[in-house]
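Appendix B: complex inputs.
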Amino acid sequence: MADAQMKNAFFLGLDSSTQSLKAVLIDSSFRVQGETAVNFDRDLPRFGTEGGVHRHADGLTVTSPALMWVAALDLLLDRMRDGRWPLNRVAAVSGSGQQHGSVWLVRGARQVLNRLDPGLPLEKQLEGIFALRDSPVWMDSSTTAECREREEKMGGAQRVADITGSRAYERFTGNQIAKIFKRQPDVYGKTERIALVSSFMASLLTGDYAPIDMSDGSGMNLLDIRRRAWDRLAMDVTSPNLAEKLGEPSPSHAVVGRIHGRYAKAYSFSPNCFVIAFSGDNPCSLAGLRLQKVNDAAISMGTSDTMFASIGTPRPSGEEGHIFVNPVDPEAYMAMLCIKNGSLTREYVRDMAASGSWDEFNRKLESTPPGNNGNIGFYIREPEITPPILKTGVYRFDGAGRSVEAFDPAAETRAVVEGQFLAMRLHARKIGISAEKILATGGASSNRSILKVMADVFGVPVYVAEQANSAALGAACRAFHGWLCAMKGSFVPFAAAMEGAPEFQMAFRPEPAAHRTYDAMLERYEELEKRIPKK
Ligand code: ADP
Ligand code: XUL
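Resulting structure:
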């Protein structure tokens, strides 16, 4: 039955990321049939965000208005309907969300979701359901006290990592929850459900509380990644009665419900359309890039830069990096590191050194030699995650290791790109990812000058997908995978489900001479990194 139905079916993937909400529609041969997006700053200026977020005066707190994500969903659906997407043929939808962010829903929110009206905008119907209007997001780094407390109470950083896959990190949801419980007990008290961005967006579609999936749930410092259940101790050190506020975590390929009747009436979805558990953006990218082996790594360059790979045996580090439950293989894991100073930091250098133009940025970058004549820069515009550098600042060193005030504009462009990839290479090695090939994705992966530096720094070939937004594409592939498992009545290996998907194109092979330069530079980079003030 599945085979006949599959032929005519479409699968929809949404990606609720930091700066935008995107949609990708695929057919059952994995060809992209539609793409659209809502940019939060440009399309919803009434929420007053910059880069999708509000940065608070303390320099550490970063939030996004939860209602903005609600408004964005209606706008995105309107665009799909106006673009005459065949939404009536969508067999399943899934989604991706920026990781770690939390959405706080008041008692009674579930009934409001159940009763969604097709005739009214979502924003009007849902403005009262939030216990907290401003959702903490992954860029927040205000919970250092809660992190230290977690590590102390759970038996040290390594112990926290052994259980949850990561030592305590400021942006991880458990530490954000502990902070809100302590500082805003009234908010905590009136909260019935704490969702992740991913499970919240799924809830909007099902009209009910959708579960947190185990892969995105691994970014909370609360889940026992081996038992795939909330860890009692991790929950107890966070706040009281947390399990009931979180609900049970679900496998990432699970059907979490059917689309609510509102969307059938207003947007002509089939009432049978399945909603497959939404997951984090990095897990969804891993699905979209079909990463199977530890030596097939991906580098995603969105608002944040991340590097990740599938792994079999988890060996979490108490110092850096993360292990998550794998989003497409319930027996496996993924290893990842996250660098906060990604696209927005490249944009800062583009604006400072290349008149705000990527073309000029690329010309300047290409006018300088690999190794940048020994110049190395650290551009910590936001408190950094990898390596942990909470104090912001820009640090530049010349070939003799002397600290300098500025580089010439061309050297500046090369320093930011080389510095980011050297940091990734150094730290990825420490969490057991040693890439033999790299799949590049995210907004900046459309920039070939940047990809060339990536290939030379790592000394491996770099591939790109036709679709730079692998998170939304991965969500669509997961919609297909979850639907197939449901139709067959048992788990189907993801690789088998994805047979026939288009190959990735090689963008660059490394140049051996350039790569040798970077081998030597890596040691200097590591030494200089130690000299940067961390707090
Ligand atoms: P997210 O999913 O985190 O919201 P995206 O993956 O959509 O982010 O990437 C958005 C970023 O892509 C922008 O901040 C921008 O800096 C970057 N970007 C877009 N085009 C280019 C380009 N040609 N060169 C470098 N970066 C680019
Ligand atoms: C991953 C992380 C970011 C967000 C936003 O741990 O914090 O990559 O998922 O993209």
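The chain has a mean pLDDT of 96.
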